[in-house]
Amino acid sequence: MIKVGDSLPAVTLSEYSEVEGSGCSIGPNPVDVQKAAAGKTIAVFAVPGAFTPTCSAKHVPGYLQNHDALKAAGVDEIWCLSVNDPFVMGAWARDQKTGGKLRMLADGDAAFAKATGLTLDLNGKGLGLRSNRYSMLVRDGKVATLNVEAPGKFEVSDGATLLAQAQSA
């Protein structure tokens, strides 16, 4: 499993863009994780699935609520990762009204989850291989803090916890 001090894996995620700009076309665009994280401080959080109850009711709203404070604490971007396709992540971004505050990144084939060792096997529940619920503060592509949830829990990966870690670092 990835740990504090490790570099983010060399994988490509996808992001659905509804407007053209910054070199991105409308529709799914590739996001090279290492290039996108270089030289930035990023609040990353991952969820088992878009539109799922805890993820939609608590996890994403908590990061939206703490967006301005995270920025004030030196966070350049906030990334939400899920093992979903970019179209689902785009629809979830609209539903959650992330309005460019969060980058809703699709890990469609679970490459990031597998590379970090943060997978969650939900095959018996009809959901397949997913990402564990966690958060991490990343500085220049390296993990500065890591908060991995126990199965079925939502106690340490919330926006307030990562904000406190960003403020104390």
From TrEMBL:
The lineage of its organism: Bacteria, Pseudomonadati, Pseudomonadota, Betaproteobacteria, Burkholderiales. GO terms for biological process: cell redox homeostasis; cellular response to oxidative stress; hydrogen peroxide catabolic process. This is Glutathione-dependent peroxiredoxin. Belongs to the peroxiredoxin family. Prx5 subfamily. GO terms for molecular function: thioredoxin peroxidase activity. PROSITE patterns: THIOREDOXIN_2. The keyword Oxidoreductase applies. The keyword Transferase does not apply. Its EC number is 1.11.1.27.
